[in-house]
Design brief:
Distance between the termini: 5 Å
Mean pLDDT: 87
Number of helices: 12
Largest sheet: none
Low-confidence stretches: 299-303
Helix content: over 70%
Strand content: under 5%
Radius of gyration: 26 Å
Length: 305
């Protein structure tokens, strides 16, 4: 994800990194090529009586704008929900560890055991959503037996929740935790389970493919034929106007596709690495740990993944 300080409006016009322009540049060059073809062939197809007017393109352009606006709203809603879920994850983790430390104020090792499971859950969820290997992070956080069990599981995040529940159940059986306190902590575990289910719902349920395909095809057909409708009136200005209009439609289509999966590593996706690292630092500080990992700060181009 790109995290930038506030920029001057003029400088923002020329921002390259983090925009979708780098991804659609080749597609815009194709539109430029079609504009040149339209100029070169204008007299030929005009002699044949073939003429495209702007009237149908005006109607179609309005329809495409409405559909693109709806699709971008849906994609941004998915992005916003994903961010809210990860914000809830941080809140619940802080609350859980605070409860554990309040119950066992003199037993630091218990808080360390439980916080390790919490940190492992955050990293495990990130890797599960991105489809990346979680071995290194889990091996760094958990004992050998636990992380090997998790890696072998088909649902490692759910397995960590089970380990948390078993940990609490043992303390309840030994009388170290009362039924009321157990119920209170268990409610926060249920909230973690809800965060997991919410993230899985977003990750496993994309926008219906047929809907995206219709919008995608219509946009590119519109941009391909647009130069032939503009050239009778604009002539040599056709490439400039056609590329500008195509940039508007194609960039919106590309941005909606990028935001549809907010858990990826694209410039506009959620910075899950930084979120997991921040969560780990928060929990370690609550345990009064002195050796903390370094925060992930924006680089020269203000990028966090």
């Amino acid at each position: 994800m790109i995290v930038r300080p506030k920029q001057h409006w003029f400088r923002r016009l020329f921002v390259w990194h983090g925009s979708v322009l780098s991804e659609i540049l080749f597609r815009l060059s194709l539109n430029l090529g079609m504009s040149i073809v339209a100029i070169l062939c204008f007299q030929w197809y005009e002699a044949l009586g073939i003429k495209l007017t702007l009237a149908p393109f005006s109607l179609l352009g309005v329809a495409i704008a409405i559909f693109l606006g709806f699709r971008n709203s849906v994609s941004y809603a998915r992005f916003t929900e994903a961010r809210v879920l990860w914000g809830s994850l941080l809140i619940v983790n802080r609350s859980l560890l605070r409860q554990i430390k309040s119950i066992f104020p003199q037993r630091r090792e218990l808080a360390q055991e439980f916080s390790a499971l919490q940190i492992a859950f955050s990293y495990c969820l990130k890797h599960q959503l991105r489809g990346t290997a979680m071995n290194d992070d889990l091996a760094r956080i958990l004992p050998d037996h636990d992380w090997k069990t998790l890696v072998a599981s088909s649902a490692p995040c759910n397995r960590i929740l089970l380990l948390m529940g078993e940990w609490l159940g043992e303390k309840r059986q030994t009388g170290e935790i009362s039924d009321i306190i157990f119920q209170s902590i268990d409610e926060n575990l249920n909230k973690l389970s809800a965060v997991l289910a919410g993230c899985e719902r977003i990750s496993n349920t994309p926008i219906p493919y047929a809907y995206s395909l219709i919008v995608h095809r219509t946009v590119y057909l519109f941009c391909t034929l647009l130069p032939f409708a503009l050239v009778p009136d604009l002539h040599y200005m056709t490439p400039l106007v056609s590329v500008f209009i195509s940039y508007t439609f194609i960039s919106l289509d590309a941005l909606a596709e990028e935001l549809e999966d907010p858990f990826g590593t694209a410039p506009n996706d959620l910075p899950l690495n930084a979120m997991c690292k921040n969560m780990e630092i928060n929990l370690l500080e609550m345990n009064d740990e002195t050796e903390l990992p370094a925060k992930l700060l924006p680089d020269k181009r203000y990028q966090l993944k």
